[in-house]
Amino acid sequence: MGILGKIFTWWNGATIGTSLFTARKGSKVGEDHQGNVYYEGGVDPNGLTRRWVIYNGPNDASRVPAEWHGWLHHSIEGAPESFLPPPRIWERDSTPNATGTVNAYRPSGALEKGGRRQKATGDYEAWSPEAS
What we know:
It comes from Sphingobium wenxiniae (strain DSM 21828 / CGMCC 1.7748 / JZ-1). By secondary structure, this protein is α+β, with helices and mostly antiparallel strands. The chain has helices spanning 3-8, 16-25, 66-72, 80-83, and strands at residues 27-31, 37-43, 49-54.
């Protein structure tokens, strides 16, 4: 992404302000399987260490895995790899929010699926003001 992209696109990766703040005050803590990079540095008004993520792609909080979400919110102190037990065989990988993408759920009556609903089965009666 070029310099103009960094200036004008806040939704894809880090802006120039975030990049400058990260270079000045941030120290890299780790990276997840999606390529998101996690940093910490400085202190917030509550006395906690500031923690943030620079996304590898679109900025979407649903792209942060559960273990790193816990780290961002100070539930665990160190990098998740050193503080969490290994994943169980029944656990699934986190998936990003698919809303607005081709992978989004669309029920049978949705416009993207032709806009045709199933016919009513007659298990209800429509309300009319004269019937009351």
